[in-house]
Amino acid sequence: MTIFARVAGTGSSLPDRILTNQELESMVDTSDEWIQSRTGISERRIAAEGETTCDLAEKASLDALDAAGVDPQDIDLVVLATTTPDQVFPSTACLLQERLKISNNSPAFDVQAVCSGFIYALDLANKFITGGNVKCALVVGAETFSRIIDWTDRNTCVLFGDGAGAVVLKADQESGITSSILHANGAYNRLLHVPHGVSKGFDRVQAGGAFTQMQGSEVFKFAVRALGDIVDEVLEKEGLSKNDIDWLVPHQANIRIISASAKRLGISLDKVIVTIERHGNTSAASVPLAFDEAVREGKIKRGQRVIMEALGGGFTWGAVLMVY
Ligand code: UT7
Question: Which of 58, 69, 98, 215 is buried deepest, with most CB atoms within 10 A?
């Protein structure tokens, strides 16, 4: 008997504070026109002082549990994707487990694959469920990326935002995730990175100077190629054609990258879930946030075939194909 990991419920959460392009114009040498035309972003959310990744993850998870009609005690795996954990350790997944009062000693861990983190987390949870070890998993992408942004660097500060998205995955005999593909190539690590951390350049971290650096146009070129290729790869793996896809839920990094993915897939932009205008790039949260909004708006319906895809620092990239 084949077992699938099926999405039983989705949730998301955003900080209250909206940071507009107009406000950024007074912070760095940029313009609303440049940001909108080069990226598709109008505004993004920024976590309040003291508001953490786990706070956002908790709200998104409660939404997803509610939508799935699942009691937290029935969650037997928590996988949380983040680049901006609350603490060095324990993992934010463990902190979340405590917040949700999950006391059944089931495993909980973080995944660090930057913007592809949620795709990596889904793939892992899928393997736990289809392996028969887990019946009900909580998979979260949550970030307070604003904390690792240099707000004087116009190359990066206009792009990113904070948020969280979550799904409850349940073992199911009918349908669910049918394919997933993960890739990484560490040779590209310097094109998009925070070059300091705990065991390297910790003095910079302590001095408050450890921020995201990106060679944008190099990342852009790689992303267009890799995300196009991975869609072909996942379709080929499943023996499906482009016409079999109902929705594309891409990582929300740049509307021009999203449009290129849609073109490669031969689908119009109205079959692509786009939230970048209001969210910016929320790293590991971007795919589950967009997915939750599309489900709640009634766009993505039960039985439809959805491809999720993302690329992030590392580089890491991946795609998941599911019947929702
Ligand atoms: O989430 C992980 C994956 N991340 C991505 O996929 C991001 C990929 N990269 C991108 O989305 C784009 O490369 C950016 C949006 C970051 C930049 O767009 P671009 O079209 O590649 O611009 P560029 O970096 O080639 O810069 C063009 C010009 C430069 O000026 P000069 O040298 O031509 O005079 C930049 O200095 O735009 C300038 N520029 C800005 N101007 C106004 C860069 N940032 C800004 C800004 N406002 N915020």
Answer: 58
Same domain, 277 and 306: yes
Token duo for residue 141: 């992408």
Question: From atom 43 of ligand 1, which residue's Cα is the shortest distance away?
Answer: 155
How far, in Å, from the CA of 83 to the mean position of ligand 1? Answer: 22
Q: How far is CA 6 from CA 68, 81, 121, 267, in A?
A: 11, 19, 14, 25
Show the domain range for 270: 179-323
Number of domains the chain is built from? 2
Q: Are residues 125 and 13 in the same domain?
A: yes
Query: Structure pTM?
Result: 0.98
* pLDDT tens track for 40-95: 999 999 999 999 999 999 999 999 999 999 999 999 999 999 999 999 999 999 99
Q: Is the pLDDT of residue 265 over 90?
A: no
Q: Do 21 and 38 belong to one domain? A: yes
Cα-trace Rg, the chain: 18
CATH number of the domain bearing residue 203: 3.40.47.10
**116 and 194 share a domain?**
no
**Residues 192 and 137 reside in one and the same domain:** no
pLDDT, the chain, mean:
97
Residues 9 and 130 in one domain: yes
Q: Is residue 124 located within the same domain as residue 222?
A: no
Tell me, in angstroms, the distance from the centre of ligand 1 to residue 34's CA. 9
**111 closest CA partner among 320, 316, 319:** 316
Condensed to tens digits (0 to 9), the pLDDT of residues 177-202 reads 999 999 999 999 999 999 999 999 99
> Which among 162, 159, 163 has a CA at the least distance from the CA of 223?
159
Rounded CA separation 137/7 (Å)? 10
pLDDT digit string (tens) for 109-156? 999 999 999 999 999 999 999 999 999 999 999 999 999 999 999 999
Residues 241-268 have a mean pLDDT of 94
